[in-house]
Design brief:
CATH topology of the largest domain: Dna Topoisomerase Vi A Subunit, Chain: A, domain 2
CATH architecture of the largest domain: 3-Layer(aba) Sandwich
Structural class: alpha/beta
Bound molecules: zinc ion
Largest sheet: 5 strands, mixed
Number of helices: 8
CATH class of the largest domain: Alpha Beta
Strand content: 5-15%
Helix content: 25-40%
Strand order of the largest sheet: 4-3-5-6-9
Number of domains: 2
Radius of gyration: 22 Å
Length: 265
């Protein structure tokens, strides 16, 4: 298809089209919206982008993006320095922050181990993590990594490496999302939730157990920063629902509290 506008506009459309979630059609629509609102939208956006380009840097402590180093989170003295949440990317950290369920600090790995892509431990910020975990302040590392093969491979590797540092290593629970209807779920999440079941709290009789409700409802919808509907699930994250990472070998183990149950498989 030939150009319908001058090269400057075509370039704008082409660049917008490189953004995640933007196809050629939505890039064209966005460009048109910007061009029609040059004063109110295009100008301020261009200024904001120029400022971000000049001022954003990577926090040398946690790997987050911010305009200061250490970043806002790392320099917040109100945060619990004994808790460290390990995430794949900055997007996952922002998702956890949106949920408001975590008041510790973060460590951004900068990716996941991947045999397919040839990405090994040296490509991730794992050594920095081990240094931080061994500082004598950190007590618990919460692994908030995707429930994908690469995510779980990374989680097990990180858990193993962290084991020597003496910190307790936990993972986000997986299972039925808050507001989720069993009828609509795939078999995998239901089976995972059953394995991760825990004693029902409050007034319920103790012989009842409940399925695990947590962030990773589906093995297929993985990334914390991906689809918008995932934010609700992350909002259901509760540090109380984390469990020891060592118990998560494969997908076949259940929580400690129930491991003696005769109905375990
Ligand atoms: Zn930081």
């Amino acid at each position: 298809m030939g150009a319908t506008a001058g090269p400057e506009i075509e370039r704008l459309i082409a660049l917008l089209g490189k953004l995640p979630g933007m196809g050629p059609r939505s890039a064209r629509r966005a460009a048109l919206a910007l061009l029609k609102k040059r004063e109110q939208l295009l100008g301020p956006l261009a200024d904001a982008m120029a400022t971000a380009r000049d001022r954003v840097l990577t926090c040398t402590t946690c790997g987050a993006l911010d305009t200061s180093d250490p970043c806002t989170v790392c320099s917040d003295s109100e945060r619990d320095a004994t808790l460290l949440c390990v995430v794949e990317e900055v997007g996952a950290m922002w998702a956890m922050e949106r949920a408001g369920a975590f008041k510790g600090r973060y460590h951004v790995l900068g990716g996941l181990l991947s045999a397919l892509d040839g990405r090994g431990p040296e490509a991730l910020r794992i050594n920095d993590l081990l240094t931080r975990a061994g500082d004598g302040v950190v007590r618990e590392a919460v692994l908030a990594l995707p429930a994908t093969v690469d995510g779980q491979t990374t989680a097990h590797y990180v858990a193993e490496r962290l084991g020597a540092s003496g910190v307790s290593v936990t993972m986000l629970a997986r299972g039925v999302p808050v507001g989720g209807d069993l009828d609509w779920l795939d078999d995998g999440p239901i089976a995972q939730a059953r394995r991760a079941r825990r004693p029902a709290e409050a007034a319920a009789p103790t012989k009842f157990v409940i399925l695990s409700s947590a962030a990773g409802a589906c093995r297929r919808t993985q990334s914390f920063s991906a689809p918008p509907d995932r934010h609700d699930r992350i909002a259901s994250f509760d540090t109380a629902a984390t469990r020891p990472a060592q118990d998560d070998a494969g997908w076949g183990r259940r929580s400690d509290a129930l491991s003696s149950s005769p109905d375990s498989r």
